[in-house]
């Protein structure tokens, strides 16, 4: 099944006036489905393989805006640093009925003693943003149009061992996520957005992936402000049955994503797809073209494909800059057997690096956990089992970090989320360390200790005060018979 999911579409009002209805800026489905089932009632039922609920309808704001006849159509910003100074290279495109062809203006700004954009806990002042003010004047020096763009001054570089921000290697402590919650589902929920970022900061996370589609702009805005690094993912899930139609849709979706998010300092990497069927021989030419398309649009960030295939049995790894692997040892395979987890994780991650000589991230791992279910000895679906399985992964990750090419761990998932109904899903996917209404499971406290310990060790972050909770203070213990 080949599937591309939701993306934002902008439309010119005049294109729709002949229909006698206003459409403006809308959310549209841009979906390529190859599987529909005719059910007994005679209606057609959608069928899909991805493991999250496919909400329908308009779930983000609809905006009508006007422009002058000549207007600022696009701004592209690339930043650089030199010692303590920053540089902002910008390109402005002006369009409109008064212009025969698009007018392009390019320039370079120097910022002395700049405040660089840093990720959360890598600097005492993370997420620092400047405001780039662009103004358009006519021949009479009258203001025609203006636009204010938040800008974070930072660099991204990468090689076969690392990804760096401002020349400092990063280690991703993060999550896979979904736009999903109780009551509102995928609908935009501003208080929930704030809650989620507060929980990320509480845990000590510095990153997440927009699995498996572009997130709302309001969510992305706060990531830039807080200093959260983003792997920005195209809405391509389980791509299969490779065709020219799928390739065209995939490229179009990537173009829209990169055009929207190219200036965001928090976006550090592009993800071309999640769990595509890259074991197919035809995937080689397909992903070669996809990665080339991304690089033609933006060469300033590394590209990844989030993959659940064995690196020896897939055909995209030779084109990407960073390998992102999804592994579920101890859950979907070897269920309940935590003793084999460490060796299998290390073998899988090492193999990606050996084959392609690129940095590696574990983009998904975890176990479904029913909150409040406690079983000793640990047993699948219990909170105890989730803790034990996570701990085994931590041990493997630390051993891999010592080898110099392993650059991140992103648990699946930040919070429980809704899925299609099935016998394998009790109220949805329960792999979250938080419940669907954003309350912690036992694993949230374990992961918090892990992420803050990494932040302290790698970035010299100060531990929160509540890490020093009082437990026992008596220096002498009396034995009683």
Would you kindly provide a written description of the structure presented here, covering whatever features stand out?
With 481 residues, the protein is α/β, with parallel strands linked by helices. The chain has 2 domains: 70-155, Immunoglobulins (Immunoglobulin-like, Sandwich); 157-464, TIM Barrel, CATH 3.20.20. The protein is built from 7 helices and 22 strands. It has helices at 190-203, 217-226, 244-261, 283-297, 341-356, 383-401, 442-459, and strands spanning 3-4, 7-9, 26-28, 36-38, 44-46, 70-82, 85-96, 103-111, 130-137, 143-151, 156-158, 163-165, 168-169, 172-176, 207-209, 229-233, 236-237, 267-274, 303-307, 322-326, 360-364, 406-411. Strands 14-15-16-18-19-20-21-22 form an 8-stranded parallel barrel, surrounded by 5 helices. Strands 6-7-8 form a 3-stranded antiparallel β-sheet, with no helix packed on it. Strands 11-12-13 form a 3-stranded antiparallel β-sheet, with no helix packed on it. β18, α4 (283-297) and β19 form a beta-alpha-beta unit. α1 packs parallel to α2, α3 runs parallel beside α4 and α6 (383-401) runs parallel beside α7 (442-459). The longest helix has 19 residues, at 383-401. Its EC number is 3.2.1.31. This is Beta-glucuronidase.
């Amino acid at each position: 099944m080949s599937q591309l999911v939701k993306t934002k579409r902008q439309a010119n009002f005049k294109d729709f006036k002949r229909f006698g209805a206003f459409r403006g800026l809308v959310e549209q489905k841009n979906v390529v489905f190859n599987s529909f089932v005719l059910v007994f009632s005679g209606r057609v039922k959608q069928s899909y393989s991805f493991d999250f609920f496919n909400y329908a309808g308009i779930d983000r704001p609809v905006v009508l805006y006007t422009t002058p006849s000549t207007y600022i159509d696009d701004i592209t910003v690339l930043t650089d640093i030199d010692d303590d100074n920053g540089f902002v290279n910008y390109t402005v495109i002006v369009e409109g009925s008064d212009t025969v062809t698009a007018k392009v203006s390019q320039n370079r700004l120097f910022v002395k003693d700049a405040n660089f954009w840093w990720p959360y806990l890598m600097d005492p002042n993370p997420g620092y943003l400047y405001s780039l003010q662009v103004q358009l004047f006519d021949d009479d020096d009258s203001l025609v149009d203006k636009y204010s763009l938040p800008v974070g001054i930072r660099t991204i570089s990468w090689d076969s061992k690392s990804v760096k921000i401002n020349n400092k290697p990063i280690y991703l402590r993060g999550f896979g996520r979904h736009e999903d919650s109780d009551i509102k589902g995928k609908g935009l929920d501003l208080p929930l957005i704030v809650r989620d970022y507060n929980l990320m900061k509480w845990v000590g996370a510095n990153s997440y992936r927009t699995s498996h589609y572009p997130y709302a702009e309001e969510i992305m805005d706060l990531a830039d402000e807080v200093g959260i690094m983003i792997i920005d993912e195209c809405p391509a899930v389980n791509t299969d049955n490779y065709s020219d139609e799928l390739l065209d849709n995939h490229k179009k979706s990537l173009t829209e994503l990169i055009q929207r998010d190219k200036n965001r300092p928090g976006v550090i990497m592009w993800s071309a797809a999640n769990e595509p069927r890259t074991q197919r021989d035809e995937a080689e030419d397909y992903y070669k073209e996809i990665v080339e398309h991304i690089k033609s649009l933006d060469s300033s960030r590394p590209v990844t494909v989030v993959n659940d295939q064995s690196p020896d049995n897939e055909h995209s790894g030779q084109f990407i800059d960073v390998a992102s692997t999804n592994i579920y040892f101890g859950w979907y395979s070897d269920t309940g057997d935590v003793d084999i987890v460490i060796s299998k994780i290390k073998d899988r991650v090492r193999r990606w690096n050996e084959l392609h000589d690129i940095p590696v991230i574990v983009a998904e791992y975890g176990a479904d956990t029913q909150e409040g279910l406690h079983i000793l000895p640990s047993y699948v679906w219990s909170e105890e089992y989730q803790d034990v399985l996570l701990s085994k992964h931590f041990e493997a990750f630390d051993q891999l970090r010592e080898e110099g090419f392993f650059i991140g761990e992103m648990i699946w998932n930040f919070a429980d989320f809704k899925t299609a109904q099935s016998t394998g899903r009790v109220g949805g996917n329960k792999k979250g360390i938080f419940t669907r209404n954003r309350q912690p499971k036992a694993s949230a406290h374990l992961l918090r200790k892990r992420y803050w310990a990494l932040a302290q060790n790698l970035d010299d972050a100060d531990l929160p005060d509540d890490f020093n909770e009082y437990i026992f203070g008596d220096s002498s213990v009396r034995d009683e018979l």
